[in-house]
Amino acid sequence: MPSHKPGHSDHLCADIAAAQDGAISIEQIRGAGLTYDALRRRLSNGRAHLVHRGVYAWGHAKLGPRGYLWAAHLATGGSISHQSAAWDRHLIATPAMPIHVTVTRHLRSRRGIRVHVSTTLAPDQVTTRDGCR
Predict the structure, then answer these.
(1) Residue 132 resides in a domain
(2) Which of 42, 72, 76, 82 is the most exposed place for a label (fewest CB within 10 A)?
(3) In this structure, are 39 and 81 located in the same domain?
(4) What whole-number distance in Å separates Cα of residue 24 and Cα of residue 32?
């Protein structure tokens, strides 16, 4: 368990979430030094808000459109695709909901995320924008 000054883990989580348009994964929260009990306290006091299983909005209840892209990516490990990628690349005007992601393993769609499975998508065919793919 990493040793941090009191409050330091919260600052790390805030920095990570800020770089991801407000979204943060449970793995990132744990990596910043917070336990599951500490996360539960932050959920009850309004510092963290569940977006998808294992993905949270940090410091606020609602994400912006790019935050939801990040949340879908963090929840699935998939690449933002279809209409969602077109919106993110400014090719269409309105963000598509649900968020579309493409994955290379079997994964089911869930509330707010439409999963597409590709058996031929190669890593060199995926681009990133501000760290989100």
Answers:
(1) no
(2) 82
(3) no
(4) 11
